[in-house]
Specification:
418 residues, alpha+beta, two-stranded parallel ribbon
Length: 418
Amino acid sequence: MAVAHDMVAGPSRKGMPVSVTEFESLPLDAGSFVKGMPVNGATFVAVTTFRKLLQITRNPVDLQPTAKRVGYEADALEEEASVHELIQRALTGAKKANVSRYAQYIEDVVMGQRVGVLPPMHLFTQEKLEIVRHVGDQYALIPTGMRLLAIDGETQLTGHYQLQRNGSPEVREAHANFTLTAIIHNGISVDMARQYFYDLNILAVRPNIAISLSMNTVDPLNRIVMDVEAAVPAIAGKVDKQARQLRKNSPKLLTVGALRQMIVNVAKGIAGIQYGARPLEVEDLDLARLSGVSRDWLNGFFNTFAAQVQDRDRHVAAAAPVLAAVGAIGHKLYEANPEERPALQAELLADLERIDWTKGERWAGILGKFTDRGTFSIGGTKETAYTVYNVLTDPTNPGWHRIRGQEVPTPTPTAPAA
């Protein structure tokens, strides 16, 4: 029989003392012991595994309003579901769609297929947990039958359950024993848990798309983006990796988002606009070819139009929709045979040299519009890149002639049939 020797006073914070009971041996029949360290009387940082989390949490899918709850645990599930509804969002829409992606991410990290990090999940119970010490280690005792609910990290938790259900035997075994961290909030009210949800989800400021893209070093496309920037002297060191849009007085020439979109469009053509900041499907791409073609095409464009790109006040060559359309023109080079590319690139650049890149009426209705104050306002990439691409590439488009300073040809009347 386990015997408690004494009570050890631990650190405290704002009136929440930590009491630690020391045992010679853990009373394993009392519940699950989760190793970690108490931060204060209401917070315990756990270092655990999913094998252990299976004993002390519930699959969030089972707590949804539409879940079927039958069997001997139906009453307990109903009670947990009612609390869950107060402290969490429903598992629907984008949150639900993200579960499978998160499960795949977890598998890749667990199996060493990618470098990654799994953030700690924040778990909650209204009950005050007993903290015990055994052979120098500290544990939170989760009584038998108790289930902790996720205040934060529920999508990850659902992904863990999905991976354990759908993974191969090898993956499930590795995943069950993979080290995870969780922060267990205990002895607090539901209202306090709701406040924690707010603090964890609302007060955080998400990085903008530009910063997120520049930080993702394992995305093969982003590696190409970095390689292309370094290999094209005209833009090396002049890509803004912080801002979504260039400031008027910025010394940079383009954003990392605009550069990435150019390369996406080299790969996919103008249809690449639909990807935006989403990961590019690369399974059907020759990444070495994409890198080489993007380097040569962008080097040719930025060298040929260096003056127009640098003078953003008077020219539109550096506008994000134009750059996206120029990238899409490079798709022709990606599809061409290597021996055909030099001549084709020279031909494409020669055609672009016929264009008047000066801001003005010729670009109104194509790239943007004039404001009431007479300022030319450039539209968004998704809204205008298709139109820009058409006037750059389609001689039957009236805008094709307009941006080249040409008269729109008058159609030849068709003679009436005899």
